[in-house]
Amino acid sequence: MKTEGYQQKEHGMRVKRYVQTMELKPDSALIAAYRERHSEGAVWKEILAGIREVGILEMEIYILGTRLVMIVDAPADFDWDTAMARLATLPRQQEWEEYMAEFQQCGKEATSAEKWQLMERMFRLYE
Question: Looking at domain 15-118, which CATH architecture does it have?
Answer without folding.
Answer: 2-Layer Sandwich (3.30)
